[in-house]
């Protein structure tokens, strides 16, 4: 995209056709403060039912009504500026923390021509990347407040408001604040940079190789974050003995090394968006390990013994305690980091994007196990011819010494968060090599060919991506959802779900009950697909045990056997509706809601 092309960072699309400059100038001229009709200061923008307790009522106030010394930015921005409020959007705030480390990128998202004093008109604007284009979002500065404090994101400096306004603009783009509940860190990092995100299993690297990779990535402007994987939903938010929060997003902000009596110690600096609850293990702020480090070194590393959510951790302990690192390369060349984290020679990348859709009955053919319909999925043809000009080592396969072409493929689901919160489809892609075929490929081709690469298991994420190295040639990328269509539930299972609710004898659900039930079913669908190891659309007894644990339901073998006899009698595998029946029966038994 050229600098002034519509959709570029310098010339973003206007969200809701609202032009910041004309709206601001109009307010300044009339002496009024801007009120946004597209994101009103009321419960609709919150997206959640109001609290029944009047003491917890929400008021909408402008910054100067919250703090008499209100400023947009207090001095400079930093990773400790951002503290999470009463909204489960740590994934977004961790990405925002990483963004503050890169002034040029930060200025793209948060334009510097804004203030709560000069030419103040109660209007602000921010830029986000959305599916290939940059979008400018305008908001007023009414912010939700409860008991005199900002309800959601806020700065550690209570008179600073830039982070709260960025969060509001992103919430407007998503439809409401509640639409930001739960997400993947890569989603936020991509939307703040327009870059390409990828996940790295920490166990795939030695601690030293991981430190080198992170160090090189940070120096190239890559945004990094990490998290501890949870075994089931009940573990989300629990704190480990080391003071780390499970299922919670942390930003990786720095890497460095120090020397002690044992030699070199390789360190990483992490940031918890909560602004509190810090790591308390080796090399944490108040750990005695620092007594062996020279005072000048501690000053250089800005070691501060205060609970601000930021802390150092050795790479050895990091590799043991964390599960995944998320990396977002700001430009494609940033991906050219080898296994040891060394720079490779500059390379030229070509970026190509396509639009498509899964239309039921037309182009929604389901996964490759649906041989009769898989070919109906969207197919994208590409030709790669230029060999890499450096010797790379593929992260996802054994080391290769043959020169190949490196490609990063990514599939994004558009607008799913806005439409139905985080109701993402389970998606994946397969790459096949062509041998002269020119027309759209049919069932016969896919029945006789194996893919040369694939994204991995189907996942309910906004975006899936993979870096692959292929031989020069022509390929087709097939993007698909897990099933041809949405899961269906037999009438009997629907009755079980309704009767398990407290309907007051009406045999029908209220609107809040329906919304809650649908949300629960989406979560159970994700669990079912995760533990459907062979992608057959069914579960084995062993898979059922794991799936029930992930749903927060643990039962011993006799109960599991009895459950299978009741629900899966005569079956060797259990379909989706059978899994739902098992969950309902156990939750009724344990006195829980479906």
From TrEMBL:
Residues 519-554 form the EF-hand domain. It comes from the Eukaryota. Pfam families: Calpain_III, Peptidase_C2. The active site is at residues 90, 248, 272. SUPFAM superfamilies: Calpain large subunit, middle domain (domain III) (SSF49758), Cysteine proteinases (SSF54001), EF-hand (SSF47473). The keyword Metal-binding applies. Keywords: Calcium, Hydrolase, Metal-binding, Protease, Thiol protease. GO terms for cellular component: cytoplasm. GO terms for molecular function: calcium ion binding; calcium-dependent cysteine-type endopeptidase activity. PROSITE patterns: CALPAIN_CAT, EF_HAND_1, EF_HAND_2, THIOL_PROTEASE_CYS. Residues 33-331 form the Calpain catalytic domain. InterPro entries: Calpain_cysteine_protease, Calpain_domain_III, Calpain_III, Calpain_III_sf, EF-hand-dom_pair, EF_Hand_1_Ca_BS, EF_hand_dom, Papain-like_cys_pep_sf. Belongs to the peptidase C2 family. This is Calpain 12. It comes from Scleropages formosus (Asian bonytongue).
